[in-house]
Structures
1.
Amino acid sequence: MTEDKNLYDVVIIGGGPAGLSAGLYLARARYRTLILEKDDFGGQITITADVVNYPGVASTDGHKLTETMRQQAQNFGAEFMTAEATGVDVDGDIKVVHTSRGDLRTFGILIATGASPRKIGFAGEQEYAGRGVAYCATCDGEFFTGREVLVVGGGFAAAEESVFLTKYASKVTLLVREEDFTCDAAVADEARKNDKIEIHYSTELQSVSAGSGGLVEATLLDRTTGETRVWKPADRGTFGVFVFAGYVPQTGLVKGVVDLDDHGYVITHGYLETSVPGIYAAGDLRVKNLRQVITATSDGAVAAVELERYASDMSAKTGLVPPRPENSPYEKSEKEAAESAAASGTSPAPVTQAGEQAPAKTSGFFGPDIRKQLDVVFGRMAAKLILKLELDDSPVSQELHTFIDELVGLSDGLLTTRVDTAPGSQDFDPAGDLPDARPNVRICRVGADGEAEETGLAFHGVPSGHEFNSFVLALYNAAGPGQQVDQATSDRIDAISDPVDIMMLVSLTCTMCPTTVLSAQRVASQNGKVRAEAYDLSHFPTLKDQYQVMSVPCIVIRKGDQETVEFGKKSVPEVLDLIGA
């Protein structure tokens, strides 16, 4: 057997529950495994606020659940790459996955790209997306506090998210297209018995229209009688629409490669193999009767065991062996525990399923797991940075100051601070600078004279919650070497010759915002003509009102005398498209 360092046993395309579970199983069995994800690891479940039906976990949220899965897979030795899969070559014993960061050679491939929310096509849906029409209750529910909302759908998501939205909305009107819900009765009953939810069956949303400040009326169709009527909230104010009408399988990558059904879902056989040997599919993109996180993780485990067999057979056939995972955190933890026990004559300390010793309780912003992640980032930074704090006399300023001080204290001298305290302004003049909204932290490089040189990267508010990772990666991108992008994308960034300001309006509860913030700031870190500043809307309501933001992320791009407003998660290439680069 010959070891091939440029070969994987399995490449998993998709970092949701199916992909993470498969990665966990494969890596634990000591197969070299790469999990490829173009956006945030975790998949669609990360936008779910309450997960109460995952066995063994009484209650959690989607982000926490999948972050635990990711950590488990990593602890067993799975490798991760943030990049977009652009194609696959599946002929022969060694297959190739083409990505935005180069080609990956592998014996087996698991397709686990999931599905994305379906748009239903009512009049005004596209026009008012982000300004009253939304698809994520966790991200956007808070924007409708005290207002009425319409929810469209009759499945699991519509029933569950309707209940969640009652935390914010004064009333929820649920429009079910069929004669009854299409989900389990227990889930539907939670919506039925909620006093703040009114349900209309056999009803479709045909259109919405807006007035000053948001949506003001909707046209509903009674599918039984064929009659239409105009609906308005009781207070005759503005309202929101949340669409939960199922998902569209993300199978474009393998269209024409493996067999799909008439709806675009992958057809799998007994143990999740597709029509092509060595290509397996798991999760919401395949034909199945239930799409829930538990069935996705089950798919991942089943496919992983079959891929173990397939990779082993291909290794025996070709005589090639990918390098095996070694010195994984799991193995190190078990070895250290055993050595400690042998030295002390006591039993090893209890370990979690992922092999981590039970963490000690810590105080402050950063627990032991986050500190480990920070150590990795700080260990790779090529230069020191200065964090310039622009504060005022608000409690949020004190929180930001404490947050940054603790972060700097963990950086082993790589980070220092400069503090400026003065009143700030939220006013945004399209012909002037981005608003000097305080408090904020600006990421600066250290100039030749030791002074702070701004990079154009800033966060207004406290970069905690879902924005913590994007802020830390902004430090890495500013200090270098930074996250890799493919050569074509890098050339597009370098080619930007005119000044561009990007203002990102975000919420710390939004799981889609960090991708957009990170993408814009990755561009700004490489090209000094670009500024990319994020604003936590919970602290800067003036900006929310100015742009009538009812969905996050909201991206405001100013280039010369032109201003563009966009909504939704954006990758680096998509940000460049918006810039016109």
2.
Amino acid sequence: MKIVIPCMIYLGSALMVYNILHYYRFARKMKKTGVLEMRRTFLYLPFFLLVFFLIGYLITALFGNPTLVMGGILFGGSVFVFLILNVMIRIVGYIQNDEHRINAMYNELREELTSITKDRLAVFRVNLTKDIVEDRAGTDLYDSDKTARTYTDLMLNRFPDLLIKPAERYGPGLFTREGLLKHFQNGHNTASETIYARRKSVRNGYFLMEAALAQQPVTGEVIAFITERDYNRDMIDRVIWNKALSEEYDAIAYIASGQLGTVLSSGERNHPDVLLSGDGETEYGEAVGRLVSSLDLGADSPDRLLDALKLERVERELSDKDAYAVDFSYHADSEIVYKRFTFFAADREAHFYALLISDTTEIRREQEEQNRRLEEALEQAKASSAAKTAFLSNMSHDIRTPMNAIIGFTNLARQCAGNPGKTREYLEKILTSSNHLLSLINDVLEMSRIESGKIELANSPCNLARLVEDFHAMVVNLAEAKNQELTVDFSGVTNKNVICDKLRLNQVLLNLLSNAVKYTPDGGRVEVRISQKGRTPGGRGVYEFRVKDNGIGMTPEFAAHVFEAFEREKTSTVSGIQGTGLGMAITKKIVDLMGGSIEVVTAPGKGTEFIVSVEFEISPEETEPDAAKKDESPEPDFTGKRLLLVDDMEINREIAVAVLEMNGFLVEEADDGEKAVSMVQASRPGYYDAVLMDIQMPVMNGYDAARKIRLLENRNLAGIPIIAMTANAFEEDRKAAFEAGMNGHVAKPIDVKALINTLKGIL
């Protein structure tokens, strides 16, 4: 026992000295690395315990006679301290390794953020715990960014440059010191916020502030690495992307293992939001059930829609197809809304599907409107076809009537060759019937040209007073033949000189007036009243033309269609009156071209009144000063005048030669344009006084022949007068003739008076 106690004392003392030296080296190492700097008492307390035990050993060994109990306590305490000390050192070693790792990550983050400084407008390293700006850099720093010492001052100085300020007075809430600290305490290591501000470079726009938050390993202080960059392009891309998707789709969602999640939702008025659950996920079957039960499907079956949207049905449909679409409709806000759910298989094996929800209401309405228009067009086509069939029937009747007269009176004239009086009477009737037949043909051709858009107004100065005199002179004989009273009132017109298409206006008035005379019984009354209703703000005159009669009138049913092509009222009174049913349609089209309006007031047995309202530009000068003067020049003598008649139709040449020779002309003939050019080129200047040129001919047409004559080297021959004498009788044909170098235009069938007057004017 005497040996055991001293051994325990000496061994315990040696062990304690070892513990003190081992812990001393450990503590110095901890201090040198800075680990556990805030826990110095944690280092000093074990050291004091070791020294205490060592002193206890020394006192016991030098001055006492220790018992077995005391020796055991001291030795056991030394062993216990040794074991505890080694466990503590091992634990601290683990902590040290973790702190080294965290410190390495911290330094790596700091280096990474420092490396992107050149690409950022501003970069800050901020100690949020101490409210200190530790470092700053960037390509577009404010002056206040460079001088602010605290993060609070930094944000306060930046706040006035926010163009769209937050509701709170103090800075953007998330990026205040308190906001970032709270954000970090809630477990977030990053933060971002979009701001709209004015930068130092006086450039306004969107900027993205981002923060990476970390705790300083040694001190435990919260450090924020804050960057700011231009976000204009990103904002535009995001807006365009979301806008494009939201305009195309109400929502974009996905189905993953039976769970429904939302990617994008536009939140439109008629959007079935009950299907979606915001940012989270919901069970797809439950969502579909809520959707179907919440909609007013009207006549559609809820069971049908529920079956079509079931996940099992979706997976079955997509097993061999790329897409599966479900269309349905429901009532919302007193209207029918059409929707389409389109499913796509993103990954069949993983049961991952994309769902696009789109509104097809406008598309369906457009389709329905298009179908309605097609049905209306079909009905109009049927009606037009029926009208044209009726028109052809009427035309067959109306054409055969004058043709029957022409053929019949021609045969009678042949049989009465020895009776000049009868022959002349028959020839006059043949001429009347021929003119009527020509008017029928002209109406059909005119309507065809109007329908094809080939008519254009040729505006020129016009004196309305003289225009009225002209068409009055044309109709007065017709009215007198039926013993009708024809009156024209022009007193309501202030500005008589206007700019208009005189030919078309005259055509409109003649159509209305001739119809009034035609459909008014003998002894009736026809009135024409023209008045001026002031001026437009642009200075144009507003004119009203009224043509009224006390004739047979029209039924309301027919009056509603009077301006439609091929329409004629079928009554016993009208059936005996000749006409094509095109006159009023032509009149309406011409008035429309003039930008005016025409209306009718009528009743059966009470007459009819047509009211035309048009606007004309007022002409400041007197026009057509010699239009009303009677041509009192002597009748010309064409004896000895030589003409070259060019026409490929022998019968046309025969008629023309007879007419021309009766008026004293010498006539030579050519049957195509090329021969005409050769004959003119081979002649001497003055041999031909003029050329009468047909247009549609074989070998060379009349336009080309006229151009070649104008290009002859002999300028006297090249200047010979050329007159188009052709069945191409429209205004554009006249223009084409003059553009080809011709001097006049006479339409076929030949009006002898018009032809002679044209030759008189040129020769």
3.
Amino acid sequence: MTDVQQGYKWVGTRSIRPDGLDKVTGRAQFSADLMLSGMLEGAVARSPHAHARILSIDTAAAEAMPGVHAVVTGADFPDLTDSDAAADVINRSLNVIARDRVLYHGHPVAAVAATSRELARAAADAIEVTYEVLPHVLTVDQAMAADAPILHEGLEGGGNVAKTLTLDRGDLEIGLAEADMVVEREFTTKPVHQGYIEPHATVAETNADGRCHIWVSSQGHFSIRAQTAAVLARDVSRFKVTPAEIGGGFGGKTTIYLEPLAVVLSAKAGRPVRLVMGRGDVFRASGPTSGTSIRVKMGATNDGRIVACDATIALEAGAFPGGPLNGAVMTFLACYDIPNFLVEGHDVVCNKPKVHAYRAPGAPMAAFAVESVIDEVAAALDIDPIELRLRNAAVEGTQSYYGPPFARIGLVETLEAIRDSDHYQSPLGPNQGRGVGSGFWFNMGGNSSVTVSVDDAGGVSVLTGSPDIGGSRASAALITAEEFGIDLDAIRVTVADTESVGFNDVTGGSRTAHATSAVLAIACEQLRADLCSRAAATWSCENDDVEWVDGRAQRTDGSVPPLSLRDIARNAARTGGPISITTTENTRGAGPGFATQVIDVEVDPETGVVSVIRATTAQDAGRALHPSYVEGQMQGGVAQGIGWALNEEYVHNDDGTLDNPSFLDYRMPVASDLPMIDTIIVEVPNPKHPYGVRGVGETGIVPTLAAVANAVSDAAGTRFADLPITPVRVLAEGGATGDESP
């Protein structure tokens, strides 16, 4: 890769988003919009219990209903438990449809395909399931108790602990002994949902030869293909997956729920089948992120040097192993250079939906606890909270908390940007408080493929395999325009199906802009060389005598008029045939991302209601390919974090049923709940990327929980350690102080 480039024409501009017109006019096609000839509608029968043994399933009444074409149960799916399939594949299969036991309220037990959605739902309701209700556990504390019912035998960590992960360095006892002060606190967070507006939806058409075409709104149709094939014990070559537009994902649409059900229903009915989750099913049966129980013990010297940290974090995995353990443990102290630490994490199963990724999985909960304690340390030492963070901040050359030394990173720059902001310097009023927090996310590289083609008119077509959930089509167009030196309007970017473009990893992990732009830069460089070679053939000169400048091939000696992209394309048949290239790379060098935020709140001492009145976020993007998209990602992370901190939580009854499976009762923030979220884009270029890109999608949510909690604690004069900070909790802690803040 080349050195980080400067002086761009297109990169860094705020071009019109390529999908904008179709989305605002309603022409964009989502999975639920697809209509195929003879298509049936599907519905899923789900468990009313949190934990129960399935004694029998009687589908006769449903099958006898007019218009019902197929009914399936777990018996129609491969039993992988005694196979050589990986444990996560087996668990995913059991989550798609239950076999002998249901493990959470909403666990699928059967599915129906009928001529209308209403009929399919009625048929699903007509399926009679006999259960033996079993004891259940709903929290990590219940699940880890000595007398807890065991969900799965033989888990790695023993009992209901699926896995334990530990990171340590130095000598914790010596570090704590060196500390002049020690703060120890316990924290909890609740499960929260990603809250995407579009529910899960898919259409499947299985042919008589067993080949299947799936249409799906997802964050990675190659991954959906692989997962579906695995749980059905079929080869991936039997499946073609076409991506639809996606109405939000935030990590929650990187897995399968409906796809195998639709495939088997379609095979049984001999017709295409569409399955769409209702909102209640989305809440009951698709993965939220984990609830957590966290303990942090931190020691610091009087001059503000953090010398030791002892911590544990237990995460709800839901019904099957696989909570965001790695993300929580490996980001826990990543913002700081702390010589002595021991951080232990536990992945704990319980009778709730299997959790799934949610924007920097695991990191916001870890940062909530760590940044809250750091805030308390700063107050005890009478040190400005940003200054304390600066004294302990990881910088270039610091051995990262999770292992390798950091290359060039931008944490200090984000802290300084907030410290120097008008927001941080502004006064506060009565019952108001201010909180800050910093956060980290790794960002990823991974596998990406692009195909770049030039048409006869000199237009450029770019095929990628990464669903666009954060502006990847716009960033790809900007990179292509920059690389070729042509107008943005000459470029078309398409997200192609699994048979039209090479393999791509999911759109997740903040990898897509980084990886796609890196691969695209390589492809464009190779194609420019081909174009120069074709121009040399046209002029009967050596390749070295031709260079590409401002969208044209020109002789270095200026002896002939230059050839435009259109000129070369028109002559392609005589210079080697179609102009096209496919490039695939397993990209490396993802740059770690850091963000710092300051949030002001006002607490009503009579009602306990917390209002966020001002928010500013500073984040290192490395290089902002499209600043508007970057700002949108930053603002979106803060908005979600505010909801997580103040309102959102899964509420389960004692019997394990979910009590708030709708947007009416699951309280997400809306526009009237939020201030204008100010953004400061920090650009510390990633030296391992041709344009300096780091990735921005996840880091922005990491500090928000802590920044809000610190602000409420500042306003109320007492520490809040349990999220969400609802009015009931505020009043229980004494409301606001009513003091005038300096």
4.
Amino acid sequence: MNDGERKSAIKRTLRAWLNRLLSLREKQSPIDLQHLGRTLLHAIVVGAAAGLVSAAFSTAVERVQHWLLTSLAGYSFLRAAGERASEGAPGVFRPWLLVWLPALGAGLAGYIGHRFAPEVLGGGGNAAIRVFHKRDAITRKRVPWLKAIASILTLGSGGSGGREGPTMQIGSSMASLVARWLKTSPRERRILYVAGIAAGVSAVFRTPLGAALFAAEVLYRDDFESDALVPAVLASVVGYSVGLPFGESSRLFAHADSYPFVPGHLPFFAALALFEVALALTFLRALKTVRMVSGKMPGPVWMRPGYGGLALGILTVPLLFWLGTRLGRPGGGFGILGGGYGAAQVAITGADWLPGGWRGVQVLAALCALKLVASSFTLGTGGSAGDFAPSLVLGGLLGGAFGRATQLLTGDATINPGAFALVGMGTLFGGIAHVPLSSMVLVCELAGSYDLIVPLMLAEGIAFVALRRHHLYEAQPSSRSSAVETVRAQQSLRVGDLAQAQPGARTFGPATGGRAMLDAVGDATWQVTFPVLNETGKIVGVVPSKVLHVVASEEGMADWVVASDLMQEPMVARFDEPAIEVLTRMLAAGLRQIPVLNDQGQVAAYLDERSVASKLVVELPVASTLDATTTPLAGRSGQS
């Protein structure tokens, strides 16, 4: 028995042993303990895997930030009380280097993601929700690892985003891998997928109950994945436990011992909610504007995050340098680069450098404006950074400024600005993410008590109503029933509804030489599958661009090879075929594009995965954010 066979035998033995262990065969039980027991025990495995990988990812981000920003650029991070502090003093402050680092990190992350797994580009929350609403909730094996690498590069170099969005995608992808290894049913895979989101967020944010509720609530705008709640709670506890050794504290923020409830303060919290709604709308508008502008920028798609990083450095670094000089913190961070939880910590508890009175209000408001612009540059250009943390930080900074201003205007010493900062965090994020229940619990866990539950309920209710038509996560369907109807409607789509007649399509003859084929690939901006036609114009085969990449890499091969040597059996489609079935066959064959034939058997259009990504619920190996000018990628299987 060779090594490969021995490893396969060991894997089969372990899988069989684990499945026997997880099988609870109590036939006389009044409830289905076999199914319930298996799911809960599977959730423990998912919680451990997702929590461990997510916590390791978070630690790696902090280490890279320390190496690049603190040691190399001399930037002193402002961190929350529960975040791991940087080891060692900052190096010499180099603002010119700090300008370029976000662009280099985000640009490299964009290239890696675009080249190997474009679905890892972006925050991660939308991608995780989109995959859940697939029929099988399966992600590719490479996704969690490449998502971690892209986010480490983006956040480690100063990108203004959080770790929770990436951990949603990392945790859920780990759950998908575990579910495939355990050979679970499609329904159980979807439940474990939710459990993976909960475990990932819990390991990083350290709010086990809030993370479990969030994972079940964030999947819809007006609904709740109740079937997955108990497994999500269990996985969240496990993820929290395995992630705890990676952090300095069990809680992310320091806060007051208590926040006494004062009924007379409720009108102030209601007014705060209106300010948070205005800020939320401004934030969403800024993200949309940056997306539109970056979509018109020259160069390949993968450069867009780099443009965002460059804009981030050029605009924010001089302002941070000026602000640090005025506040006695030259080279000191103010929570603008990275997640920004240090800025939220200042809004909650204050800091020795934060001025008192109205000047302190102005500083918090200025930090809020800077964070909004910085996050828009990173997130709006497709940077691999989460929108969870910036939403919380923006809400906290505005809440802290509002609380201090209210205290000054009323002269009421019982007003605690930290309470307004915490309520503001939950109000803004809960409103635009449509997660009012879980955001309330998250804030209560962060505050260490439920003292703020009443003002949170009031503010969250106002924001929930006011922001009904505005979404941070566009992949959220309104409810489970609407998601089902969407899938049914999509199953009725035909190839003719999605195929596109592309100008300038290149075709080969059976005798077309290697050099001519390589020239065609080099000139192509959208075409990755090249039909081979005989003398009568009928298709006899196709040559994928990935095959021609091999020809280009082998010295001298292009001088003797011809199209008939490289072509494979033609996979084609007809305009009246069901789109879902054709797309499934196409991806199973490892093709990203196939010709569509008319009634005369001639190539009339092309069905491209990019052209259907924005219309189908099924997740494709290429993210829907990419356009038709994307440079051809190497071929890949749906299982890799």
